[in-house]
Amino acid sequence: MAFYHAAVARHIQPGDRVIDLGTGTGILAAFAARRGAAHVYAIDHSEILRHARTLATANQVENIEFVSTHSTRFTTDEPVDVILHEQMGDGLFDEAMVANVTDLRDRLLRPGGLILPGIFEFYCEPIKVHDHRLVPFIWELNVHGYDYSCLERHRPQEPGAYQLVS
Predict the structure, then answer these.
(1) CA-angle at 19, arms to 27 and 53, nearest 5°
(2) What is the distance between the alpha carbons of residues 119 and 31, in angstroms, rounded to a whole number?
(3) Which residues contact 15 (CB under 8 A, 6 or more apart)?
(4) pLDDT tens digits for 41-91?
(5) Fewer CB within 10 A of the terminal residue: the chain, N end or C end?
(6) Considering 62, 78, 86, 125, which one is annotated as catalytic?
(7) Distance CA 26, CA 29 (A)
(8) 96-144: per-residue pLDDT in tens?
(9) Are 109 and 27 a contacting pair, CB within 8 Å?
């Protein structure tokens, strides 16, 4: 949450209109409201929204409108300045993040508005699930007597790169 707190402090200005997409417990909405956003729409279609309301009240956070709906059904009278979200799930794309964010962007974000976060880096780490599905490093290959082991000396040397996990 430190990243989000810093991003909100840096990018949300007093008077901004903000959507917190998939608000969950409402913490991003609270960060934006405390920053002085004129209006924060905290959108979620799950039961957690009632906890978000309770948390906002207990923490004396105002200027949040909690909206129980799917984001594709949400509308406002005027465009918003910022779309906040934390819809990555465990595998970055688990919660239809791209579809939901782009839908709101196209319908409700003002021209030049901001999406936070607006860029991601996706890393994959190779794992061995089954012996017959093992994808070896190139230097581990021996294809019909054509030995790739000489390439091992050229693999990246930075700490943790290509580290095998048993």
Answers:
(1) 45
(2) 20
(3) 36, 37, 38
(4) 999 999 889 899 999 999 999 899 999 999 999 999 999 999 999 866 555
(5) C
(6) 86
(7) 5
(8) 778 889 999 999 999 999 999 777 666 667 766 666 666 677 778 777 7
(9) no
DSSP state of 140: G
Task: Quote the tokens at residue 3.
Answer: 């990243």
**Other C-beta atoms within 10 Å of 63: how many?**
17
User: At CB < 8 A and 24+ separation, what contacts does 91-94 make?
Assistant: 92/120, 92/122
E-assigned strands of the chain?
17-21, 39-44, 64-68, 80-85, 109-116, 142-143, 146-147
Catalytic residue among 47, 62, 95, 158: 95
Q: Catalytic residue at 86? A: yes
Whole-number Å distance between alpha carbons of 131 and 140: 14
How much is the pTM? 0.70
* Residue 95 falls in the annotated catalytic set: yes
Query: What is the spatial distance between Cα 37 and Cα 31, in angstroms, rounded to a whole number?
Result: 9
